[in-house]
Structures are given as C-alpha cells and as structure tokens.
C-alpha cells in the first residue's frame, strides 16, 4: 500500500522542474544560513549576534513588504540575473573586508549582509510566485530545497572552517560563487514552456474591481482570499518569531539537529499535509518558554532531551512554512495566487525580525543572569 501511494505521489512529476526548484530553494536560502553561521566571525564576541540577524532580515522584510506591488512588471529572467549578481556582490563584500581582529570595520561587512538579504527576500517571493505556473510539485521541491539550505549551509561552513581548515575569508569567498547555480537552474534546467505559454499577466491595478452588484460567488472568493491570508500569515509570523529566537543560541551540533528537523518537515509536503496551522505555532511558543526556563534554571536533566526539543522545534517550523503556502495554492483564487504566494513571505521575515529585536535584549539578559551565578559559558562562545 505504501509503495502504491509513493508511486501515485510522484507520478507525472517533471524531474527538471523538481530539480530546478530544489536548487532555487537551496541557493536562495543558503547564503542566509552561512551568514548566520559566520555571525561570531563577522562581528566578534563583544557584539550581540542578533545584530547580524537583524541586518540579514530587515532588508529582506522591507523588500517583501513592498516588492509584491511592483515586481510583477520585471520579467522572471531579468530578476534571476539581478538576484545572482546582488547576492554574489554582497558575499564578496563580506569576504574581502578584513576581520575585526585585523582592523576591519563591521559597517562594510554589514553592507554586504544587507545586499545578500535584499536579494534573498526578493528571490523568495519571486520563486514562490513562480510555483504558480509549475504545479504543486514545484512548491514541494522549493520547500525541501529551503530546508536543505539550513542543513547544508550550516554543515558546509562548519566543515570548511574546522575539518578542512579553510579560513573564514576563503569559506565566504567560495560561497560568493553559489548564485551561479541559480542562473544555471533557471536558464538550463527549468523548462521554460509554462512561462512562454502563460497569458499576459494582469497588473494588480488591472484586476477587476467589484461594485455593490457583485454576485455571491465573487463575494465568496474575496472572503476566501481574506481568510487564507488571515489563517496563513499569523501562524507563519509566530513560527518565524519562535523558531529564530529559540534556535539563535544553538551552535554546531545543536544547530545541525535543528536544521535536520527543518529539512525533514519542509520535505514532507508530498507525504503529509496539515490544514490547521495554529496548533504547531502555539507548540513553538511553548518550546520558547521551555528553553528560556532551561537557560535560567538548568532543570532539564539530560542534554539529549534538549536536543530532542531542538529537533522538535525544527519540525514544527518547517511544517508551518510549507503548509502555509500549500493552503494558499489550494484556497486562493487562481488570478490572485501568484501575488498571494509572494506577499505572504513578509510574515516569515516579520517574525524573524521581531525575533532579532527580542534577541538583542534576551541574549544580554540571559548572559548576565548566568554570569552573576558563576556560569560564564555565554562569554566564551
């Protein structure tokens, strides 16, 4: 029975579409993960690492907030070229600027982080909008690729700087060439027929406006659009806030465990769907409270229980992400779907941005609490 279901799930899937969108998700998100993994090396131990998180998220948030209203006039092919160029430029700025220990300025590195963030934000809303033309399998592949970005990005940076012994500069320089994969995926791997054959896209200003004489079906469609945004954006915002605040202080092994959970759940869409998005978001809030109390009182008797909570957090966050967009694909009217898929991405960045702001205070507060009680681990990270 399982084999039959598995064959039915993957029957009719275009492997080129799946491969292209998996690589889109991987490359668009992997630079974000590498930057966060390198946070300590970028700003040094005396600067809150939430500063890097904010520089990595606020530009993306602002881009996602405004771009859905005008980016549709830019062809996808031109967008991909711009995203690749800006991402590479940002990573080069980060890599070539001397380290803080050699007199380098944090300002220049943060400028590179901002460029990479702008590209990532515009890329996410564009690629999710693009899934509208390639079916549900493209959304599943994109989700899995973004999950893989966390696992591969954090793992590759750790391996490069520890096992292989590459310098931070060399590792970041190598990552500056990753956007080339995005170009190859779009221009060589992705079938272009759906884009060439689609009807002329209406601008959002040209979408027919309904007057008082609109019929019942029109009112129902508008209510459905409103409901889908309400039920999808709020859990996703909560997910972004709790996921990034909880996972921020996890390093190396713990970060890998968390990213493994994200990868598994973001790859689950072909096999498992949830339609009620609030319960996993509330569970994430409980995780946040549980781990804050652990940082204060160390009441959990085994580190393996903490690892399990971190893994569970990753599962919940990834599950909300992919199922939010799956709900939009299922419930939003076709003429609004491309816009809705892109516009909803702002909720994720909004949650992460709030997490960064909260983290600026919480990180310092928790560290001071521990130091006053003779525990100085946070000062040696």
Outline the structure in words.
It is a single chain. With 381 residues, the chain is an all-alpha fold. The protein contains 16 helices and no strands. The radius of gyration is 21 Å and the shape is globular.
Kindly summarize this structure in a few lines.
With 381 residues, the chain is mainly α. The protein has helices at residues 2-10, 15-37, 39-43, 50-66, 76-96, 106-130, 136-163, 168-175, 179-189, 193-197, 216-247, 253-266, 278-297, 303-331, 334-343, 345-372. Residues 199-234 and 243-248 have low confidence and may be disordered.
C-alpha geometry: globular
- How much helical structure, as a percent, in the residues? over 70%
Instruction: Find the structural class using helix and strand composition.
Output: mainly alpha
Largest sheet composition: none
| Count of alpha/pi helices | 16
Proportion of residues in extended strands: under 5%
Q: How many DSSP E strands?
A: 0
pLDDT < 50 runs, ≥5 residues: 199-234, 243-248
């Amino acid at each position: 029975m399982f084999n039959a279901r598995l064959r039915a799930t993957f029957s009719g899937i275009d492997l080129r579409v799946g491969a292209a969108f998996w690589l889109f998700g991987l490359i668009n998100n992997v630079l974000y993960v590498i930057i966060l993994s390198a946070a300590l090396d970028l700003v040094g131990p005396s600067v809150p690492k939430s500063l890097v998180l904010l520089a990595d998220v606020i530009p993306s948030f602002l881009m996602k907030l405004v771009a859905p209203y005008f980016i549709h006039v830019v062809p996808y092919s031109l967008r991909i070229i711009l995203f690749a160029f800006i991402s590479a430029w940002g990573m080069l700025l980060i890599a070539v600027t001397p380290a803080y220990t050699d007199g380098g300025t944090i300002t220049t590195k943060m400028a590179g982080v901002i460029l990479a963030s702008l590209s990532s934000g515009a890329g996410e809303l564009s690629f999710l909008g693009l899934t509208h033309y390639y079916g549900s399998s493209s959304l599943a592949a994109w989700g899995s690729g973004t999950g893989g970005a966390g696992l591969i990005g954090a793992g590759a940076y750790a391996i490069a700087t520890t096992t292989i012994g590459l310098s931070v500069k060399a590792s970041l320089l190598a990552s500056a060439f990753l956007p080339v994969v995005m170009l190859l995926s779009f221009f060589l791997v992705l079938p272009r027929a759906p884009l060439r054959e689609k009807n002329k896209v209406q601008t959002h200003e040209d979408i027919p406006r309904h007057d008082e004489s609109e019929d019942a079906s029109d009112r129902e469609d508008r209510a459905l659009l409103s409901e889908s945004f309400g039920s999808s954006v709020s859990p996703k915002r909560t997910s972004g806030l709790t996921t990034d605040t909880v996972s921020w202080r996890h390093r190396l092994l713990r970060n890998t465990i968390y990213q493994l959970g994200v990868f598994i759940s973001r790859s689950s869409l072909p096999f498992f769907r949830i339609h009620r998005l609030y319960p996993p978001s509330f569970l994430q809030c409980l995780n946040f409270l549980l781990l804050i109390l652990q940082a204060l009182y160390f009441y959990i008797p085994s580190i393996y229980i903490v690892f399990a909570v971190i893994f569970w957090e990753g599962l919940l966050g990834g599950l909300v992400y992919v199922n939010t967009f799956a709900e939009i694909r299922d419930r939003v009217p076709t003429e609004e779907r491309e816009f809705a898929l892109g516009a909803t991405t702002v909720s994720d960045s909004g949650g992460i941005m709030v997490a960064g702001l909260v983290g600026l205070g919480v990180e310092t507060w928790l560290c001071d609490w521990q130091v006053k009680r003779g525990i100085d681990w946070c000062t040696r990270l």
